Amino acid sequence: MTRHQGQSYALQPIVDVASGAPLYMEMLVRFADGRNVQHTVMQKEDSRTIHEIDLWMLREAESTLARSADDRRLAVNISPVTIERYYNELLDIIDHFRARPARLVIEITETAPILEPHYVAGFAMSARAAGMAIALDDYGNGFCDASRFLLLQPNFIKVAKTGRGGWRAMPARERRALRSLADARQVPLIGEGVESANDLEDIRSFGFHFAQGYYLGTEVQAEQTRLTAGTAAAQSIGKLFASQLT
Description:
Layout: E1 7-16, E2 22-31, H1 37-46, H2 51-67, E3 74-78, H3 80-85, H4 87-95, E4 104-108, H5 117-130, E5 133-136, H6 146-152, E6 156-159, H7 172-185, E7 189-191, H8 197-206, E8 210-212, E9 220-221, H9 228-245
Parallel strand pairs: 2-3, 3-4, 4-5, 5-6, 6-7, 7-8
Antiparallel strand pairs: 1-2, 1-8, 1-9
Helix pairs in contact: 4-5
């Protein structure tokens, strides 16, 4: 397992709500001392040091994908703070990416505002042009709203389970508006926080295309040399969906 200054990462799958087929595996940063991830990330965004996590995770994704021979995809989280401060370095990584770019999904996080939209929009455009996918994380929460959708033109929209914009408490009118926005731009919706069979049914009934959560695949520690963790997760998800369909 790769570690860096007390950091490591785990993988969790995003899956098709109809078939259970994995869409991609998200890399989730974890800390050896047990620090709360969300609080640590927000502190680092406030201190403008979130790049210490983001750039390391991006390099780890590149290295892992370059070593693996299959077509499975990985996703990394990148803050607008990192994009604005390290724009040129990020473009250089994109230009010289050592794996097939289509295997990388970049989730732009919601907890920091976009202060320099030309940089963040330019980064998203460059990543898409290279073949990478852009996802908006936790749409409806933090600073992620329709204006960010229009600015970044994402390939996926992720919606949290909780929070002011979470799918669990989202009013029907707002849910319809989100679906209309996604359908008009042909952008799939990903529901997060699926922790039970009832959550999965709700996600399906709300019209989400993909889902993520512990019910669909617990976090697995990433191996340093291959994506065997992704294989194990895919097998367990396949068994879960097979049991639901019989």
